[in-house]
Amino acid sequence: MIEEANASIGSDLQMANHPWRSGTVWVELVIDRDNRLVDCTAQSASRHLADLVGQACWGVILAPIDSRHFAHAPELRFRFPLVIPPRLEQPNSRKLKLLREAGQVREQFMQRLGGPGSIPGIGLLVMNWTATSEGKIHSCQVKTLPLGIRKGEYVRDEAFLARAFEVCQRLDMAPFTEHGTTPVRVDLITTYAPWMK
What we know:
Blueprint: H1 2-16, E1 23-32, E2 37-43, H2 47-56, E3 75-84, H3 94-113, E4 123-131, E5 137-145, H4 158-169, E6 184-192
Antiparallel strand pairs: 1-2, 1-3, 4-5, 4-6
């Protein structure tokens, strides 16, 4: 379970940790008996890393915990260290540039989609869109899929899909496109859950 949380947070940090900082962050997750993440905190000597991890950890989705583990408490707490190593790639490499842009687009999308309580169920949000070289959205496709480890909590919600499509059409891609004549195609897959911020 700790490995799952580390992997999830680490993936988000690949996109958000810029300029790259390394160090150790202590993370505490609180899970209730319905397997919902109800609290998440991060502590580190680096305020920058603590803030980044404190935001990223709200994206953690763990495999369901057996109900017998909640026999003596309504919530379970997990505290573990997240070690962020120095990055080997050059800070201006194309790979890192694409990761940062993907993270910024996802953040823009999720913020406009709504906060905790406005997202039904748990699943994968798959987005494909084409933007002109000036950043104007040309076409957009959005769909949701079950997430393997929590497929029983997937809900196909037409209102949620309609809202996601509307947000997709209003995305501002201008900061992420290179001027030219060819439309830019973007494919993005992200998880979603009711507790995400």
